[in-house]
Amino acid sequence: xxxxxxxxxxCKLKHKELFKWSKKTIEESGLPIxxxxxxxxxxxxxxxxxxxxxxxxxxxxxxxxxxxxSEADYVFFCEHDVLYHPSHFxxxxxxxxxxxxxxxxxxxxxxxxxxxxxxxxxxSQLCASRELLIKHYTKRFKMIAHGQKAYxxxxxxxxxxxxxxxxxxxxxxxxxxxxxxxxxxxxxVKRMDPSEFRNKKTCQNFDVLxxxxxxxxxxxxxxxx
Length: 225
Description:
Blueprint: E1 3-9, H1 16-27, E2 33-37, E3 47-49, H2 56-69, E4 74-79, E5 82-83, E6 99-102, E7 105-109, E8 114-117, E9 126-129, H3 130-145, E10 168-171, E11 177-181, E12 207-209, H4 219-224
Parallel strand pairs: 1-2, 1-4, 2-3, 6-10, 7-11
Antiparallel strand pairs: 4-9, 5-11, 6-9, 7-8, 8-12
Helix pairs in contact: 2-3
């Protein structure tokens, strides 16, 4: 098995249509899917159910369990409120020694239909060697167990670089993915304007567009969410 999807969810997304559509885009990839959920609401053939509350450490545990159960060479991280274009899954990392993030992704805020994009490293856009990721998350848990700080979401970037010094690279799918801001996101619904970033270096190439400008997607369906 060369590539597999690691799909982690807490099953608490209230926007049911988004939940269904996101899952459908993942299934349409044609790749094997390994699900790690916090409730038995995901009827995947391969579903690990973790009895735990929503927390950063729970998310790390979901990811690490999935990585250890998987037998794939490379894994895509997928989340329940992101719409993935099929072209996202065409990518195969050229090396096992780096973390790879799809940089062709936009935030879509439902409250005002605003769509923005900028250079980013988001966990939901990560694809990398399974063995490399196991090393990262195992070290992360060891640091936590010894009372050390293990901040940062994305391996290879920001505060996560204190865990290992593995570099990252970007790739861009032919068509964009959409990270939907629906109000329940852990990372909130802000950062939709450069003024909302404390560090302007983290919003390079900031772009604003309308829903009809998004290529590769059903615009009417997006506006119906």
